[in-house]
Amino acid sequence: MVALSIKQRKPFVSDQQELYVSIVRTASELSRSTERFLRAYGTTQIQYNVLRILQGSGPEGLGRNEIAERMITAAPDMTRLLDRMERDGLVVRTKDREDKRQVATTITPTGKRLLSSVEGPLMKLHSEQLAALSISDVRKAVELLGAARDGNLRAL
User: Where is the HTH marR-type domain (predicted)?
Assistant: First the structure.
């Protein structure tokens, strides 16, 4: 099926290659539609991910590297991203009083409001994006993708 969507004429070399291309293509399509959706709220998937991470981190916040480690997708330049988000009033960064090299980032009330306004509609979008799958299919896909991630980590 993915061969048709990418207009591939030759068969895949292996089932694993077809699965890999299918995962990447599906992730790209889901990501594009989610990015368009979030643009209407004045944010991006990466910014949304940072805000969710910070909301769950507690009042002490997190350092730049800790945020980067928890990201769903890698942010090319976390410092610039946080600069932009701070300028937009979504986060605030505070230097540690004892170790000035350490900077904690926390979510602001503006960032919390943005998360709150996006969360319900975004969950609805995800339900619509994956409506062709039953709950059982979704659970199985989560399990299989987890196994694939674990296998990838072992292969590194």
Answer: 16-150
